[in-house]
From TrEMBL:
Lineage of origin: Eukaryota, Metazoa, Chordata, Craniata, Vertebrata
Gene name of the record: Dis3l2_0
Annotated source species: Brachypodius melanocephalos
Cellular component terms per the entry's GO annotation: P-body
Chief place where the protein resides: cytoplasm
Cell compartment(s), UniProt: Cytoplasm
Pfam (any one): OB_Dis3
Keyword terms, alphabetized: Cytoplasm, Exonuclease, Hydrolase, Magnesium, Metal-binding, Nuclease, RNA-binding
Basic and acidic residues bias: start-end ranges: 51-61
SUPFAM superfamilies linked: Nucleic acid-binding proteins (SSF50249)
Record PANTHER family: DIS3-LIKE EXONUCLEASE 2, RIBONUCLEASE
UniProt protein name: DI3L2 exonuclease
Amino acid sequence: PDVIIEAQFDDNDAEHGQDHLQDTLTDDIKKLSLDTGEKGKAAGVTGVHRTKQDDGPKVNDPRLLPDEFLQRTAKVVYILEKKHSRAATGFIKLLADRNSELFKRCAMFSPVDHRVPRVYVPLADCPPDFVSKPEAYSQMLFICRIVDWKEDSNFASGQLCKSLGQAGEIEPESEGILTEYGVDFSDFSPEVLECLPQNLPWAISPGELAKRRDLR
């Protein structure tokens, strides 16, 4: 039968790595082998005989199976281009384990966008009274930029760039979105402003209007 075996990742798979995935795939292949064998026995009872030439490959060895029975796997070997700005909008809070050494050095940054991982940020980047009054900053939006993510850590490392203001207000939320997507929203420089017409009021001449497409 045309059966495709798919090994799906969950949190435990991510922890145990490729070896766990391979074991899972091998177990599924063995189950398929047993099911096929049982069907063969049932067919033999009804008088259908099979020769050695009709037998398929030994499914105990995954390398001998046809491609349609295997789930392809791969690993990232090189980051060609970083598309994300590594900046995120979110909130800061104290770590849960107050007795750990990490509690004395770092706070936890939780991004609003759940596709971005949580980040350890230095307490030195946080407001001076954050440790004594963390509740005062529970609804304060911050911009954090991820700088590293070690292989043996569940969370990335980053730096707080700035405080945006209260969550839910238009200006802080808008600035956070523009920063995340790497949009430069700073004021135009004098050199750019000098390119604009200086004699005001300025109007498009009839000749220009005739050869332009009007999208107003």
